Amino acid sequence: MKKCPEKEILFALLDGELEHEELARVQAHLKSCSRCAEEYKQMACDDKILRQGVEELLARHRVNSKIMAEIKKIPAPQPAASKPADWWQKALIPALALGLLFLAMVFMIPANHRFHGRVDSVSFHALNNESTVDGVTVQPEQKFNLSLCCRQSLQGQFLFSSLTENPAEFVIRGTAMVSFTDQALVVFSDADLEVDLVNGSEVKIVVNDADVSLSAGTVSYRTNPRAVATMSAEIASTTPETPTSPIFEAASKPVVASDSALASATTILQTSATDAEVATDAFNITADAEPDPVIPAEVQTEPASSVEHITNPFVDQPLGQGQ
Amino acid sequence: MNKHEMSDAELVKMVLAGEIEQFSILVERYEKLAFSYLLSRLNDLQEVEDIVQDTFVKAFRHLASYDCERKFAGWLVTIARNLLIDSRRKASRNIASTDLVTDVLLSDSTKENKNHPPEVIIQRERYRQIINMIQELPEDFRTPFLLRVVNELPYQEIAEILSLPLQTVKNRIFKARGLLREKRENYEKMP
Fold first, then answer.
1. pLDDT class for A110, splitting at 50, 70, 90?
2. B32 to chain A: which residues are within 8 Å by CB?
3. How many whole angstroms separate alpha carbon B13 and alpha carbon B28?
4. Strand partners, A161
5. In this predicted model, what pLDDT tens digit does every residue of A163-194 receive, in sequence order?
6. ipTM value of the model?
7. Which candidate from A57, A71, A80 shows the least CB-CB separation from B105?
8. CATH level 3 topology of B3-90
9. Chain-chain contact of B57 with A74 (C-beta, under 8 angstroms)
10. How is domain B100-189 classified at the CATH fold level?
11. Interface membership of B122 toward A (CB under 8 Å)
């Protein structure tokens, strides 16, 4: 190296920051350049004097013993405990656990039950202007969803729409308390009513603690012929305009008390405990009773075909196909 | 293993485990660093001493919060810097004469000069000149320069301790050296 290095190179040499080839090159230059060598020597000397001067000062102001005397007066430091969790951190794990538990429960419920149990999976509305819900007269356009939490008191005529896996609609007439179970069952208690499946292939309900299956082809179900007969007569007199499907129309006829044959035609389709009440001595009607010849033949012989292609009488568009 | 060969983290763990006296090894190891750092920032030697002491006491109090992954020197200088800021807020005594350090040295050395050979007296005079020149450097240049010269730390370590980029540290040390060189030349030209 013939040319003198930049002063920064000499500084870096002084600070021990040069490496390998550059270090060798600069050191070689210092051997051949007295001016740079003198400069370097002067700076190194200044550094040494400064270092010695500060160390001399430090020697006069050492505080090690003072520090040790001081720290013996104060409590010894303890290893850091884990930082206390914030409130949200404390709540996080239980919340996650609850969330996972909830998800596990949801997935353990059979799929059809989850579907049936939807809050809005079953709804109903009145079919006339005289029907009441919880004692309040309701209008046909008012839609009510069944909920798991509350029972509702119904009186009058209502169309129930079940948007379950097998959509169905049925009409009830009479009085009952209605509720909804987590098993997706519509439950009528304290019921004095008549039920007709007007659309769909099948629907299962509970009436006065008895399981009732309404299938396409069956005509109707009623709890107590006498009471329903009376109630139906009243309804017939007060709401002659009640819209019905052909099936609904046929099924409504037997409930007239005087028409025992029609009544029997409905009772033979039921097998539940409530059916036993139908075959009471008061009416002296049995399932084996001879059908009255006045019953339309299609009702007795081909009820299933009558169920097909039912148009929901309460809406403009068909709800579905009877199967 | 000799305790003086132990790493900072090992010593910290021992202190936290109850061996408080091991803290003196950390003090020995870093007292000069804290001193030279504060010396580069203050003119009052008594205040330097006080803050060095406070720095180690505070470090001891908060030793449990020390992250062993971090350099102890950097942590210590951070404490010293914070105490220095507090001190500057509170007191006005650090607005002292820029010659205070050199005055102390000079007065001390004057007392002792009678017993020293002439070469020691000359060296002390050189020291007084140098420290005077350093006092005239911008503070930001002074600190890395003193850490380099007094503590003989590599640039990289100074950068870590002062939380500065390596290149910034290099530039400041070079500028400090360049300015000192000019001052010395001017000083030598003086009659």
1. low
2. 54-55, 58
3. 17
4. A123, A169
5. 766 788 888 989 999 988 777 788 888 888 88
6. 0.84
7. A57
8. Rna Polymerase Sigma Factor; Chain: A (1.10.1740)
9. yes
10. Arc Repressor Mutant, subunit A (1.10.10)
11. no
